[in-house]
Amino acid sequence: MSKIAPSTLRIGRRYRPNRLASDYDTLVIGSGIGGLTTAALLSDLGKKVCVLEQHYTAGGYTHSYERNGYEWDVGVHYIGDVGAQTTTRRMFDYLSQGQLRWSPMDSEYDRYYIGDKVFNARAGKQEFRDNLVLQFPDEVVAIDRYMTLLAKTGKAMAAFGMSRALSNWQYVLMWPYLRLKMPRLLFRNTYDVLSELTDNKELIAVICGQWGDMGLPPKRSTFMVHAMIARHYLHGGFYPVGGAWRIADTIIPKIQASGGEVFTYACVEEISVSGGKVSGVTMKDGHHIACDRVVSAAGISNTFQKLLPATTAEQCGYRDDLQGIEPSYAHLGVYIGLKETAQDLGLPRTNFWIYPDSDYDSAVERFIEDENAAFPVVYISFPSAKDPDYNNRHPGTSTIEIVAPAPYQWFAKWNEEVWGKRGEDYETLKAELGDRLMEYLYDKLPQLRGKVDYFEVSTPVSTNWFGGYQQGELYGLSHTPERMQQRWLRTRTRLPGLWLTGQDVLTCGVTGAMMAGMLTTSSIVGAFKMAPLMKRIFSSSARKTLPAAS
Ligand SMILES: Cc1cc2nc3c(=O)[nH]c(=O)nc-3n(C[C@H](O)[C@H](O)[C@H](O)COP(=O)(O)OP(=O)(O)OC[C@H]3O[C@@H](n4cnc5c(N)ncnc54)[C@H](O)[C@@H]3O)c2cc1C
Asked: Which CATH class is domain 13-101+241-325+486-539?
């Protein structure tokens, strides 16, 4: 395998007003996968696009960072659906011009520790089903009915995606079709749907073992998003060879090839409006960039609460619309470095999900009420074990990441403080929480005690600082049934010249945000110009998958 060049992991070009061109067709706010996909596809259609990213590196939640000789990802642990020539895989191949390669995880890609029991999710539709049957032999009928529901939801997702890209009149025209294709089931809560299949609480818990992938336990989440995630990983998990930062690194050249650029340290202060339509953006340094098309990939709350002038947001009705949505939970991250390789330490290519018991919703409630209660979920991931290139870049070392929920309110008082200078109280709280989370790791892998060289903890205010969020949102908007039924959450806005993309338009996840980028591009250029592009995407072939996991 060819070696990936060591990098400082700072990708994109540093913003300076004198580096800007004067004739951009489109400005994109935010360089997450949603923004980059829109920018790259528009660039492919000959548009000159300028992406403005407030962070020091491009990629949004797909960026990676280095410290003390280690490298960690912040928002990518596994991607599904890239082991064959699926739409997802073809999109990644196309955007990265075949440069992004994928490494499969173990066939048991997720492991659920529920109380004192252990269950695994196994790659492959039939294998997944058979494995569930093996663990719950009396529940064959319920399991098969569940698999049928997953298939049904998969077909409906295309209609849901389409509904997010339509104009108002198209929406009205298409409504009978959309209603037919999107059964009520999609918008019901996950627990209600599953409890009609079985009253076996443990089976429901195993089926919902990935609830952390959307940040809502089964009694609060939408069945559609549950099913979308379950389907996404049905054929196993994959990791980007070279680390998550390779996603942005391999997409940016497409934007530059059309004369566009991805600027970092480029914080947009306001979306400018003149004569009832968009006229560009004003940067934090006061510089104005004129352009009559702006795509906001910075999230719905940022767009309508921070970036758009308050009077415009009010006049367009978005202030009222915001009442129907809420932010997703915030999270803690623990980034761990060890001075031995993943192989030497026996680290798996399997994600661990650790739950106190099978009643996930009650565990969340207990934790919100009492900070000393058990974490309702602790997720542990082993990035260096999943990346066959890691030891080329960081020889003799390995990394582990832990993610767990934490209310934003615990940290809100430090939000205005500068990163690294939040004081002793903050550091003490971080250290306490970090130590608690490390015990979850040692409990499952006791051989690691005494082997950890370095670890650091991130909090919801770190998410705000680095990711430009307002309440440490793990996944943008919360994926409640109410949110998924908000018809105004679409690629088009009521303000001429302003478009939306990213995880808030469709769903969270790298693939969800990437698909939103495709929908936004399609809305902007129209079906006629999009059709040849789609043809090109679907004729690109998946060539670079590593051999299947044993
Ligand atoms: C801990 C964690 C683990 C995850 N694990 C996975 C996983 O394993 N698999 C998976 O598929 N998904 C995972 N996700 C979810 C996934 O990473 C996101 O859903 C997806 O990357 C979101 O993409 P986006 O483009 O919508 O938003 P983002 O990536 O958040 O991009 C938004 C960008 O806008 C920028 N921005 C905001 N305000 C401004 C401004 N005023 N000016 C300029 N720029 C601005 C931000 O800095 C940011 O770069 C995870 C997320 C987290 C947090």
From this structure: alpha beta
